[in-house]
Model the fold of this input.
Amino acid sequence: MNRHSIYEPENAKILNIREQTEKEKLFEIELESGEPLDHDPGQFVELSIAGVGEAPISITSSPTKEGASFELCVRAVGNVTNALHNLKINDEVGIRGPFGTGFDVEEFKGRDVLFIGGGLGLAPLRSLINYVIDRRDEFGKTAILYGCREPCEILYEDELDQWDEMTNMDLHQTVDRCPEGVCWEGNIGVITTLIPHVDFDPDTTIAAVCGPPIMYRFVMEELKNRNLPDEQVFLSLERRMKCGVGKCGHCQIDGLYTCQEGPVFNYADVKDVEEAL
Amino acid sequence: MISKEDFEAFVERLVKEDHREVVGVQEKGDKFVFDELKAAKDLRLDYDVTILPPKKYFMPQRETLVKYKVKDGHKAVNEITPRIILGIHPYDLEAIRQMDKVFSDTYEDKNYLKKREASVLVGVNIENVSEWCFAGSMGTSTIEEHYDLMLTDIGDKYAIEIGSEKGFELLDEADVMEASEDDISAVKKKKEGVKEKFEKKLDLPPEELPILLERSYGNTDFWKEHSEKCYSCGSCNLVCPTCYCFDVKDFNELTLDEGERIRQWDGCLLEEFAIVAGDENFRENRYQRYRHRFMRKGRYIHDRFGDIACVGCGRCGSHCVPDIADPTEIYNDLKEVTK
Ligand SMILES: Cc1cc2nc3c(=O)[nH]c(=O)nc-3n(C[C@H](O)[C@H](O)[C@H](O)COP(=O)(O)OP(=O)(O)OC[C@H]3O[C@@H](n4cnc5c(N)ncnc54)[C@H](O)[C@@H]3O)c2cc1C
Ligand code: SF4
Ligand code: SF4
Ligand code: FES
Done:
C-alpha cells in the first residue's frame, strides 16, 4: 500500500450486487486503479462509506478468481453495513487493505481439508474453499460443514449446489430449526451434530473454522473427540476494529492484535488466551 | 552552557522571530501545562509534572485523517504545525521514543510521524519531583538520547547537551559558551542526585514486570479487589504519555455531501471499548479492563516492542479520583502476593 496515508481509502466501484438473504448481499467491487487486491484467503478490507464510516469485512472471493474485482458478503447490522446495502451498481465506496493474516495456504497444501462454517462465517471460508477448488490437485479430500439458524439464512445457494456435485468434495448442511411451512429436507440440529457424520483422518486433515464466537467452543470440543491436533485447526476471530493496521488498540485479544496476527489464528496459539474464545 | 539571562533572551527571540510555534511548560492554576509560549518569562523549567504529556502535539486529542466529498471520494489530511517544544522531562522523552516506534512499526502512521519530524524537542532534567512520580524506579529520570537539546539547571546557568543536528541548528541563535570541567561534573551530580528524590518506588526492577504480570493474569481476586472502585472513567488512559488507542468517526458538513473522518483518543478502561456485533463485549467486566491496562503497559507492549510501556510519570495515579490507578501500588502488591 503506497498511499499518502494508511488511513486513506482507495476509490472503488460496485460492479454487481446479488441479494443472498433478507439481510445479506454479495457485492462485487473493483478498485479504481483496476489492480487486483492481491489478497490471501481469509484476509479482510476496511470498507469505507464517505460520511458514515468504515467497517472491517472479510474478502469472500478467492485470489484465484478471474479478473481484478473481488467480492464482499455483507450483513446489514448497523451504520456502515446498512449504508452499503442502500447503494446501487456503479456507486463508489472506499477500500483500504487487504489487511491481517489469512489462511496459510502452504499449511493446507497436500492435506485433506475440513471446512466448518456457521452463519456468516461461510463468507471468509468461501475465499479458501474456492481457492482449493481452483487448485484442486494441490489438496486432498475436502468436506464442507455448514450450519445456519434457519433455511432462509443460507448463503451462496447456487454455489452450494455446485460444491455438492463436485467429486472429492463432501457437503453437509444443517439448520438449528426449521419454521413450519418452510421446505427443508436436510439435517436439523446445531453444527456440531454434523461432525460425527464426516469421515476424516486426523493425521492428514487440516480444519478451517469460521463462525460466531459461541460456535468455536463446541466445535473444538467435537474435533478434539475426533483426535484432530490443535495445531491442525485454523479459525477466524472477530473483534471491533477502528484502523486495521495495528494502531488503534480496539482489536486486541489480550496481547494479540486481531488485525495483524489475525483474523485467522492457529488454534494452538489462542486456545490458552483467555480473551480469545 | 548558557546563562539564564541569555537563555531567556534566546527563548524570547524564538517566540518573536522563529516561524515555528514555540511551546513551553507554563503555570495553569496550581498545575503546569504545555502550551504556546507568548513570552519567555512564562516558561517554567522548574515544574514537577504537566497535566497532559506533550504527546498531544503529535497525536492531538482530535485530528482529521481524511476529508471526503461524497462524489469525489477520500483525500488524506495531515494538519501539521511545526513546533519547538521546550521543557520536556526525561520520562516524557522516553515515552515519545516509544511512540515513535509504535507509529513506524509495519504500517507507517504519517499523521503522527510527520508531526514528529516537524518538531524540535528541548528537554530539561527534573528539578522538582512530583509526589506521584516514580521515574527513578523505571530508569527514566534521566535520558542520554532521543532529544534535540537537553537542559540542566546548574544554578545561574543551564548546561545544554546537543542530541541532534536539529538541536545544533536551533542553538545557532543562542549565546552559548564552552562547558568547563566543573560544569560537566555539576551536570553529572544533578543527574545522579535526582534518582534519590522520588518518594514513590517500585519494589522490583522493571525488567521483572512482564513475568510477574504473566504469572498473575489468572489471579482474578487480585484484579477484582483492586478495581472494585473503578468508575471506568478512562482518565488514567487520557493522561498517559504511552496510551495511544483511538476511535475513528465521520463528521458531515450540514450539506451532507462532504465532511471529515477524525480520530480521537480512546481508552481501554471505557466500557464500550471492546464491544462487537450482537453487543458481545470481550472485556465486559471492570476488572478485565483494569487488568488489561496493566498487562498492556507491563507485558503486551514489552512482548511486541521490547519496552516497558510505563515511564513512571505518575499522571494516572494522580488523576484517578478513587485513587486506585497508581502503578507502584499495584505492582508492589502484586509482587507481595505472587511470591
Ligand atoms: C475481521 C473481520 C471480518 C468481518 N467480516 C465480515 C463480513 O465478511 N461480512 C459482514 O457482514 N461482517 C463482517 N464483519 C463484521 C462487521 O465488521 C461489523 O458488522 C461492522 O463493523 C458493523 O459496522 P456498522 O457500521 O454497520 O455497525 P455499527 O453501526 O458500528 O454497529 C452495529 C453493531 O455492530 C457492532 N460492531 C461495531 N463494530 C464491529 C466490528 N468491527 N465487528 C463486529 N461488530 C461490530 C456494534 O457494537 C453494534 O452492536 C467482520 C468483522 C471483522 C473484525
Ligand atoms: S482513572 Fe481510576 S476510576 Fe478512572 S478508569 Fe482509571 S482506574 Fe478507573
Ligand atoms: S501508566 Fe501511569 S505512570 Fe505509567 S506512563 Fe502511563 S500515566 Fe505515567
Ligand atoms: S484494528 Fe486497530 S489495532 Fe487492530
